[in-house]
Amino acid sequence: MKTVVRWEIFELEYSGKLEGNPFLDYHIYAEFEGEHETKKVEGFYDGAGIYRVRFMPSFEGRYKYHVYGTFSKESYEGEIQVTAPVNTNNHGPVGVVEKRYLEYVDGSPYYSVGTTCYAWIHQPEEIQKETLETLQQSCFNKIRFWLFPKYYQYNLKEPVMYPYKRGIKRGQDPKRLEKHLDMKFHTDAKIEDITDFDFYDFNEEFFQHVDRQISRLCGLGIEADIILMHPYDKWGFANMTRECDLVYIRYVVARYGAYRNVWWSLANEYDLMTKTEQDWEEIAAAIKECDCYGRLTSIHNCMKFYDYSRDWITHCSMQRIDLYRHVESTEEYLELYNKPVVWDEIAYEGNIEMGWGNIAGEELVRRFWEASLRGGYAGHGETYVHEKDILWWSHGGILHGNSEPRIDFLKKILEETPGKYLKNSIGISDEVVAIPYTTATKDFNPWIGPKQYYDYEIHYYGFGRPSYRDFDLPEDSQYKIEVIDTWNMTVTDMGIHSGYTRVLLPAKQYMAVRLIKQQSSLI
Amino acid sequence: MKTVVRWEIFELEYSGKLEGNPFLDYHIYAEFEGEHETKKVEGFYDGAGIYRVRFMPSFEGRYKYHVYGTFSKESYEGEIQVTAPVNTNNHGPVGVVEKRYLEYVDGSPYYSVGTTCYAWIHQPEEIQKETLETLQQSCFNKIRFWLFPKYYQYNLKEPVMYPYKRGIKRGQDPKRLEKHLDMKFHTDAKIEDITDFDFYDFNEEFFQHVDRQISRLCGLGIEADIILMHPYDKWGFANMTRECDLVYIRYVVARYGAYRNVWWSLANEYDLMTKTEQDWEEIAAAIKECDCYGRLTSIHNCMKFYDYSRDWITHCSMQRIDLYRHVESTEEYLELYNKPVVWDEIAYEGNIEMGWGNIAGEELVRRFWEASLRGGYAGHGETYVHEKDILWWSHGGILHGNSEPRIDFLKKILEETPGKYLKNSIGISDEVVAIPYTTATKDFNPWIGPKQYYDYEIHYYGFGRPSYRDFDLPEDSQYKIEVIDTWNMTVTDMGIHSGYTRVLLPAKQYMAVRLIKQQSSLI
After folding, report:
1. CB-defined contacts A:B, below 8 A
2. Does residue A351 sit at the B interface (CB-CB below 8 Å)?
3. What CATH code would you report for B422-522?
4. What pLDDT, on a 0 to 100 scale, did the predictor assign at position B166?
5. A235 burial class (0-12, 13-18, 19+ CB within 10 angstroms)?
6. Do the beta carbons of residue A298 and residue A265 sit within 8 Å?
7. Among A129, A167, A377, B125, which one has the highest count of C-beta atoms within 10 angstroms of its own C-beta?
């Protein structure tokens, strides 16, 4: 009997019908029955008469399965034995806990520090290789990217592969395609650029390539935040009919849903697309119907947040809607939506002409700290002008900036949190004071005091430059005090203190102070 | 006949009654009648049997006057001849134009760049002298300060003089005084610190000193934004009875209202005081009643703006109510209140422990640019830790920071504005694009374009670091393009351009680009 590692993929492959359009005309299903779960999964056609079914077991032990469908006159049965992970990277998929935080299903904390390489899977092979090498050496544990290729500034080359085969065979609506020529992001696109892709005929080679890349990301412990739709298009992929959209969605979910590192993002900047709310809700319903694992699902905005309170949305995937205050509002959005807040776009480190792509590394790292200490998550991107127009944010490649090591440093600090997750303890103040989420917040006015001290506190001063901060610690407790230079990545032990204590600081930006109450046995 | 310069002070001095409490028991009035105005002004008692009346003529030409009141059995008459200013600093008082901007009454633009030395008039003489020397060499044309002395962190010394004499003679309400011991800003104040000041008996020496300082500021071309009340008190001045407050207000207005550089600020951080809205409205009504010149009047907040739409408020005197977005909302407040927006407190350059007093010079200057280009005004302050606790924000002295020369540079750029005042031309963008207020804003969506160009534009990129910006200028016009480094204070001429133009920038923060359309005769 075949053994499968828990949360890894078990894949079955069968030959089946070839006539007509196998992507559309036939189905393949499998039912898996284990001690703790029974799942019906849909498979997909992979070209050349091959049908596949993928399954991710969520539990250890024996499963029976049964494969059937219109793809073949035959049906199949079998058994697998699911074993515990040996790979320490495999903590299962990421889910939501406490309606606030992200966590691996095995209970390991997941401190999301994401990055963005929108079109990396569409770049020449050597750049994709380089991207994976860069990711391997980086701290990032999530990457946002698009399945569809990109047409936009710095992204005017054709992709290496397309998701569809050429030659309209049926159903494409040329009228709907023409519409997108009005859109602002491709004013120089012409009707003749819109080639004759058949939105009912997937290019399996492309999707096989994506299989490999998702799998590689999984091996690196990186969540694949797959963005299904986006407006930066010139091939018509952004403007398919509802029917074609749903055919695409079902195919993608059937194909990639079993990867434990997959997240669904319905769209990048949904509000720049010509789709209606009804369209999005139908797409969301299709995902919910097909995705038996309930993968993390969201939708990303440009100017206006989608209604994140919708049932199908597992977490907020936010782009800042204000240039000056965004991650600093994390608590408000946590409260409003009662879901984890992931700041996927808060401007990128770089120096391109546009404001969303030319902030300093220092400022990006500040935004990471603000988001993280307030109980949210932040995302990185890099947009440095490059002689060959290879910008990390879209193409991947190598990093040129200086924020990534600092984000790594932040991640290590986060990993030291007692009780896994942080929250901001006070509402109005000139600092963020992060405490473990398990700590009951004490009711006091930080303007009046006296300050109440928790067992673990990180005080972050952002762009402020205090020369010192005073702590009126309890006389009867001892606190280890550390000064954290979040930019220079140092933690300086300031000793053990009780009572009124002045902590000297270097009057620089981006400093923090950590207080750790010592166990009474140590006193 | 005595000659007086327009907008300068004409002062009359008389001996009068001494018995009882002359501050309270007698009045002195004067009526001035000129060709263009008739004013009734109230005078004040100045100690030692001397009563004074001050008058600022708003017009040239001959005035007759008549002095009368209970101060004396006598009444007096006379004439003055008002002549045009010869001092180029004398542009008259500052007023409001277009419900948006500040302007001298002679039509000269007033680009307000303020500073803050709250308690400078309470410091030892040599520090006050130093403050005036610093001001003289600085760009500042407004200063905010308190009449009452200050008790707060870094300000624990007794003032050189008090505004009241000691020895309760009548009317002081010890109960009301006790109240302020509950207030957070003087938790270590004790009832015995509240000495026996008589709030009906002014210390004329103190007020004479203030006369001299206001006059010196006037000579330097600096507006005196006099703050009448504030919460940082331990002597009871913040907690006088309504009656005592009004006695004080009338005295101050009678005494200082004739100085053309005087503005009234009812309070600093009114919302930290124990007074009610009714109290503030009564105080405002008293000022309005006594101040025949209609000096600029406002009230300054801590956490919550006062209702700036009130009739008596001539301009918004704002402290930021959010740490991250404030001056960037200038247009919204201009629209909301339909009055000039003066950002009097947007955090200070410095390195003290508190967030409001430890931002970088770079950030303060950025805030000045944001406020100014959006059609508002900003205020400076400096809070560097000092071995003798002399901090500019409160004590004056000398400047230690690096923002002032940059504010001066900004002021010079503002002075080059055609049509005097700027406004932001677009609502949502990654830049501010300031244009002269007289320019009709064209209706276009900056996200879609094509951009409409005005004859004069300053594009400001704030903390962004673009390597270049593209301008799709009209082919049939010529524009002078300049790159402004707002921090290094350079203006680099990039030549004359038409049509599509890429302007290379150094990918640094705090840069701006200025476009100046050339007259057709130059083409």
Report:
1. 94
2. yes
3. 2.60.40
4. 86
5. buried
6. yes
7. A377
Question: How is B240-302 classified by DSSP, letter by letter?
Answer: --HHHHHHHHHHHHHHHTT-TTEEEEEESSGGGSS--HHHHHHHHHHHHHH-TT---EE-B-S
Q: Please, which residues bridge with residue A4 across strands?
A: A82
Query: Which stretch of A108-122, B52-66, B124-138, B438-452 has the lowest confidence by average pLDDT?
Result: B438-452
CB spacing of B353 vs A463 below 8 angstroms: no
Q: Which amino acid is at A447?
A: W
Rounded distance between C-alpha atoms, residue B225 and residue A443, angstroms? 38
Its ipTM equals 0.94
The vertex-A157 CA angle with A151 and A159, nearest 5°, equals 80
Contact A324 B323 (CB under 8 A): no
Residue B344's nearest CA partner among B374, B310, B390, B376 is B376
Which architecture, in CATH terms, is B99-154+210-415? Alpha-Beta Barrel (3.20)
Yes or no: say if A331 and A374 are a contact pair by the CB < 8 Å rule.
yes
Contacts of A187 (CB under 8 A, 6+ apart): none
Residues of B in contact with A355 (CB under 8 A): 429-431, 461, 464, 466
Edge-first strand listing for the sheet containing B479-485: B422-424, B432-436, B456-460, B511-517, B479-485, B490-497
Q: How far apart are CA A505 and CA A489, in angstroms?
A: 15
CATH topology match: B2-83 vs B422-522: yes
Q: Which chain A residues have a beta carbon less than 8 Å from that of B463?
A: 359-360, 363
CB B34 within 8 A of CB B63: yes
Q: Dump pLDDT digits (tens) for B468-498.
A: 999 999 999 999 999 999 999 999 999 999 9
Q: Is A209 exposed, middle or buried (0-12, 13-18, 19+ CB in 10 A)?
A: middle
Tokens 């509802």, residue located: A242
Whose tokens are 């907020």? That residue is A316
DSSP percent split of chain B into helix, strand, coil, nearest 5: 25, 30, 45
Tokens of A334: 């946590």
Which helix (H) or strand (E) is B50 found in, with range?
strand B50-55
Q: Is B504 on the interface with A (CB under 8 A)?
A: no
Q: Which residues make beta-bridge pairs with B317?
A: B300, B342
* Mean pLDDT along residues B441-464: 81
Q: Cα(B380)–Cα(B361) distance, rounded to whole angstroms?
A: 10
Average pLDDT over residues A104-118: 97
d(CA B497, nearest CA chain A) in Å: 19
- Give chain B's mean pLDDT: 93
Q: Which of B262, B195, B182 is nearest to B226 (CA)?
A: B262
Question: CB–CB of B353 and A509 under 8 A?
Answer: no
Compute chain A's Rg from CA coordinates: 25
Residue B153, φ and ψ in degrees, nearest 5: -40, 135
Across A360-370, average pLDDT: 98
CA distance B469 to chain A (A): 5
Q: Which amino acid is at A229?
A: M
Q: Is the dihedral of CA B352, B353, B354, B360 positive or negative?
A: positive
Domain boundaries, chain A: 2-83, 94-157+204-415, 422-522
> What architecture (CATH level 2) is domain A94-157+204-415?
Alpha-Beta Barrel (3.20)
Other CB atoms within a 10 A radius of the CB of residue B468 amount to 14
Q: Which positions 5-34 of A are in contact with B (Cβ < 8 Å)?
A: none
pLDDT of residue A523: 45
Residues of A in contact with B363 (CB under 8 A): 463
Helix B204-219, helix B125-137: angle, nearest 10: 20
Does residue A65 or residue B189 have the better pLDDT? A65
B102: enclosing H helix or E strand:
strand B101-104
Phi, psi at residue A377, to the nearest 5°?
A: -135, 155
